[in-house]
Specification:
With 192 residues, the protein is an alpha+beta fold. The chain has 2 helices and 11 strands.
Protein backbone atom coordinates (compact mmCIF):
# COMPACT_ATOMS: atom_id res chain seq x y z
CA UNK A 1 0.00 0.00 0.00
CA UNK A 2 1.41 3.39 -0.81
CA UNK A 3 0.36 6.90 0.25
CA UNK A 4 -0.59 9.76 -2.04
CA UNK A 5 2.16 12.16 -3.04
CA UNK A 6 5.76 11.75 -1.95
CA UNK A 7 5.09 9.89 1.32
CA UNK A 8 6.81 6.54 1.74
CA UNK A 9 4.76 3.37 1.46
CA UNK A 10 3.34 2.04 4.70
CA UNK A 11 4.80 -1.16 6.01
CA UNK A 12 2.75 -3.64 8.04
CA UNK A 13 4.84 -5.34 10.67
CA UNK A 14 3.47 -8.40 12.43
CA UNK A 15 5.11 -10.24 15.24
CA UNK A 16 4.32 -13.89 15.81
CA UNK A 17 4.44 -16.18 18.78
CA UNK A 18 6.00 -19.56 18.58
CA UNK A 19 2.54 -20.98 17.89
CA UNK A 20 2.28 -18.80 14.79
CA UNK A 21 -0.46 -16.62 16.21
CA UNK A 22 -0.18 -12.91 15.41
CA UNK A 23 0.17 -10.95 18.63
CA UNK A 24 0.21 -7.40 17.42
CA UNK A 25 0.35 -5.51 14.21
CA UNK A 26 1.30 -1.95 13.59
CA UNK A 27 1.86 0.33 10.68
CA UNK A 28 5.05 2.29 10.22
CA UNK A 29 5.26 5.50 8.18
CA UNK A 30 1.68 6.78 8.60
CA UNK A 31 -0.73 7.10 11.51
CA UNK A 32 -4.05 5.24 11.81
CA UNK A 33 -6.25 8.06 10.50
CA UNK A 34 -4.18 8.39 7.36
CA UNK A 35 -3.99 4.60 6.91
CA UNK A 36 -7.77 4.42 6.86
CA UNK A 37 -8.17 7.04 4.12
CA UNK A 38 -4.95 6.39 2.27
CA UNK A 39 -3.25 9.83 2.47
CA UNK A 40 0.29 10.91 3.14
CA UNK A 41 1.38 11.85 6.62
CA UNK A 42 0.27 15.26 7.94
CA UNK A 43 2.49 17.47 10.04
CA UNK A 44 2.09 17.04 13.80
CA UNK A 45 -0.77 18.96 15.44
CA UNK A 46 1.56 21.49 17.10
CA UNK A 47 3.18 22.27 13.80
CA UNK A 48 -0.19 22.71 12.10
CA UNK A 49 -1.39 25.11 14.80
CA UNK A 50 1.84 27.12 14.57
CA UNK A 51 1.47 27.31 10.79
CA UNK A 52 -2.16 28.33 11.21
CA UNK A 53 -1.18 31.10 13.64
CA UNK A 54 1.51 32.32 11.24
CA UNK A 55 -0.98 32.45 8.35
CA UNK A 56 -3.50 34.31 10.52
CA UNK A 57 -0.88 36.86 11.61
CA UNK A 58 0.29 37.36 8.04
CA UNK A 59 -3.29 37.89 6.88
CA UNK A 60 -3.97 40.36 9.71
CA UNK A 61 -0.80 42.31 8.87
CA UNK A 62 -1.75 42.44 5.19
CA UNK A 63 -5.27 43.68 5.99
CA UNK A 64 -3.92 46.31 8.39
CA UNK A 65 -1.42 47.46 5.76
CA UNK A 66 -4.15 47.81 3.17
CA UNK A 67 -6.39 49.73 5.56
CA UNK A 68 -3.61 52.13 6.47
CA UNK A 69 -2.68 52.55 2.83
CA UNK A 70 -6.20 53.57 1.82
CA UNK A 71 -7.08 55.87 4.74
CA UNK A 72 -6.31 59.55 4.30
CA UNK A 73 -3.60 60.93 6.53
CA UNK A 74 -4.96 62.98 9.42
CA UNK A 75 -3.75 66.54 9.24
CA UNK A 76 -1.81 67.78 12.22
CA UNK A 77 -3.39 70.42 14.40
CA UNK A 78 -2.15 73.98 14.48
CA UNK A 79 1.01 74.55 16.56
CA UNK A 80 2.76 77.62 17.86
CA UNK A 81 6.05 78.00 15.97
CA UNK A 82 7.30 81.33 17.34
CA UNK A 83 6.54 84.35 19.48
CA UNK A 84 7.73 87.86 20.22
CA UNK A 85 8.87 88.02 22.94
CA UNK A 86 10.28 84.50 22.77
CA UNK A 87 9.34 81.98 25.43
CA UNK A 88 11.65 82.41 28.43
CA UNK A 89 13.03 85.78 27.22
CA UNK A 90 14.54 88.23 29.73
CA UNK A 91 13.60 91.84 28.93
CA UNK A 92 14.72 95.14 30.47
CA UNK A 93 11.58 96.91 29.25
CA UNK A 94 8.14 95.52 28.58
CA UNK A 95 6.95 94.74 25.03
CA UNK A 96 4.27 96.94 23.43
CA UNK A 97 2.58 93.92 21.91
CA UNK A 98 2.63 90.12 21.96
CA UNK A 99 2.95 88.34 18.60
CA UNK A 100 2.21 84.62 18.27
CA UNK A 101 3.05 82.77 15.03
CA UNK A 102 1.38 79.46 14.19
CA UNK A 103 2.15 76.89 11.48
CA UNK A 104 -1.39 77.14 10.02
CA UNK A 105 -3.93 79.96 9.65
CA UNK A 106 -6.06 81.02 12.61
CA UNK A 107 -9.76 81.89 12.26
CA UNK A 108 -10.52 85.56 12.76
CA UNK A 109 -13.74 86.67 14.37
CA UNK A 110 -15.23 88.25 17.45
CA UNK A 111 -14.80 86.05 20.53
CA UNK A 112 -12.89 83.25 18.81
CA UNK A 113 -9.38 83.96 20.09
CA UNK A 114 -7.92 85.37 23.29
CA UNK A 115 -4.52 86.33 24.67
CA UNK A 116 -3.96 87.14 28.35
CA UNK A 117 -0.81 88.67 29.87
CA UNK A 118 -0.65 88.04 33.61
CA UNK A 119 2.02 89.64 35.79
CA UNK A 120 3.80 88.49 38.96
CA UNK A 121 0.89 89.71 41.14
CA UNK A 122 -1.72 87.92 38.95
CA UNK A 123 -2.82 91.25 37.41
CA UNK A 124 -3.76 91.46 33.70
CA UNK A 125 -1.61 93.58 31.38
CA UNK A 126 -3.22 93.03 27.94
CA UNK A 127 -4.83 96.07 26.30
CA UNK A 128 -7.56 95.93 23.64
CA UNK A 129 -8.65 93.16 21.36
CA UNK A 130 -6.65 90.45 19.61
CA UNK A 131 -5.87 90.84 15.91
CA UNK A 132 -5.50 87.94 13.49
CA UNK A 133 -3.65 88.05 10.15
CA UNK A 134 -3.55 84.54 8.64
CA UNK A 135 -1.26 82.59 11.00
CA UNK A 136 -0.16 85.57 13.17
CA UNK A 137 -2.07 86.61 16.30
CA UNK A 138 -1.22 89.98 17.89
CA UNK A 139 -2.29 91.47 21.22
CA UNK A 140 -1.45 94.93 22.55
CA UNK A 141 0.13 95.14 26.01
CA UNK A 142 -0.11 97.93 28.60
CA UNK A 143 3.12 99.44 29.97
CA UNK A 144 4.33 96.84 32.45
CA UNK A 145 4.84 97.44 36.18
CA UNK A 146 6.71 95.22 38.59
CA UNK A 147 9.77 93.20 37.64
CA UNK A 148 9.26 89.44 37.57
CA UNK A 149 7.82 86.63 35.50
CA UNK A 150 4.89 87.41 33.17
CA UNK A 151 2.73 84.67 31.67
CA UNK A 152 1.21 84.84 28.20
CA UNK A 153 -1.79 82.54 27.98
CA UNK A 154 -3.50 82.04 24.61
CA UNK A 155 -6.44 80.20 23.13
CA UNK A 156 -6.99 80.40 19.37
CA UNK A 157 -9.27 78.62 16.92
CA UNK A 158 -7.31 77.19 14.01
CA UNK A 159 -8.70 77.24 10.48
CA UNK A 160 -9.54 73.51 10.75
CA UNK A 161 -11.84 74.28 13.69
CA UNK A 162 -9.69 72.89 16.50
CA UNK A 163 -8.90 75.09 19.52
CA UNK A 164 -5.24 75.49 20.40
CA UNK A 165 -4.12 76.80 23.76
CA UNK A 166 -0.87 77.21 25.59
CA UNK A 167 1.27 79.38 27.79
CA UNK A 168 4.59 81.20 27.43
CA UNK A 169 6.59 83.24 29.90
CA UNK A 170 9.01 86.14 29.83
CA UNK A 171 10.82 87.92 32.64
CA UNK A 172 10.85 91.70 33.10
CA UNK A 173 14.24 92.40 34.74
CA UNK A 174 13.64 96.12 35.53
CA UNK A 175 10.38 97.38 36.94
CA UNK A 176 8.29 99.69 34.78
CA UNK A 177 5.82 102.37 35.85
CA UNK A 178 2.69 100.94 34.19
CA UNK A 179 -0.56 99.98 35.85
CA UNK A 180 -2.51 96.77 35.29
CA UNK A 181 -5.92 96.55 33.66
CA UNK A 182 -8.90 97.28 35.90
CA UNK A 183 -10.00 94.21 37.91
CA UNK A 184 -13.26 93.60 35.99
CA UNK A 185 -11.83 93.93 32.47
CA UNK A 186 -12.13 90.81 30.27
CA UNK A 187 -8.87 89.50 28.76
CA UNK A 188 -8.27 90.48 25.12
CA UNK A 189 -10.83 88.97 22.72
CA UNK A 190 -10.40 88.48 19.01
CA UNK A 191 -11.10 91.13 16.50
CA UNK A 192 -10.64 90.89 12.75
Amino acid sequence: MSGIGSAPAAIKVTTERASGEATRSRWRGIDRRQRKIGVSPAPPTRMRSAQSRMRTLALAAAVAGLMLGFTPMASAHNSLIGSDPANGARLESGPQRIELRFDQPVQAGEGLNSVAVVGPSNDHWEAGSVRVASNVVTAQVRSLGPAGVYKIGYRVLSADGHPVSGELTFTLTKAGNGTPAPAGQQPGQAGA
